[in-house]
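W.,

You were right to be curious about this one. When I first looked at the sequence I had no strong expectations either way, so I just let the prediction run and decided to look at it fresh. Below is the sequence, 335 residues in total, followed by the output.
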Amino acid sequence: MTHSTPMAYRRLGRSGLQVSLFSFGSWVTFHNQVDTGGVREMMAAARDGGVNFFDNAEVYANGESERLMGQALAQLKWDRLDYVVSSKFFWGLDRGAPDRPRINGCDTLNRKYLMQAVDGSLQRLGLDFIDLVFCHRADPHTPVEETVWAMHDIIEKGKALYWGTSEWSADEIRSAWDIADRHHLHKPVMEQPQYHLFHRRRVEREYARLYEDTGLGLTTWSPLASGLLTGKYRKGVPANSRGALESVSFLRDGLLDARKNAAVGELEGVARDLDCTVAQLALAWVAHNPRVSTVILGASRLAQLKENLGALAVLPKLTADVLQRIDAITAGLAD
């Protein structure tokens, strides 16, 4: 099934910003698997398919991912009103030699690092401002108040428009939101959690109160469980796949999980009944959750991206009966 259904758009949490239901991200692929020409080609195809949100992070390919996206944006010459770009900060760049450790520019959300990190991302992306900036992980060593004030100041200086978190606990998000509310600062608007058929608890249970209490929006990542939900790992790790990359070797054990791969085999039967691929079924399942503002897609090939966008046509087919079949197959396998 190829993409033919018009893109849908959802508000980012309680904000007025609308993002495409499916967005395009650069983790793993940009620079590592896709060169400048491929990045430009896939971003153009994504935009033609209605995608308006392009996700990135300072740490992806040690800054090269942002640089490639910036080059593509410069060549594509889109109207700045028509697209949304993100970056994420925490790990920093060039961690340095063991005898010269990075103190304030690595694994931190302190004010010094954040104020300099956003400038670096702006330079690599070639933009005057970044639409969405995320605190890529929580920092137990920096007072949350310091981080909240720094993110507020980044927005006040016009370097970003909205800020949020990625993989923070519900308590950490609420603490940041309460501090911002108390001091009349810019509040965290969105969270970027992992969410897929085998990883549900945080989005569906832990964050449950936050959606109504704070208006939290979600820009979810890894909807295909790093490729597990495509079915490509049922017989091992293909040579040209993400799982074969040494930079993400930590994913390999999960990709080869026998019980989950067996469940993927059963999901392929559901997909056949809906005239779609198992990947499209898994993507549509994530997008079906109304709390999800956008589902971040990753792709190393143009055909892969177009296939993923075909998940839009699967959404109306996810009836209560189909969802029950999916839950029965994945029962006991989701964390």
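Here's what jumped out at me. DSSP finds twelve helices and ten strands in the chain. And, maybe more interesting for your project: The chain has one domain: 9-228+286-300.

Coffee later to discuss?

I.
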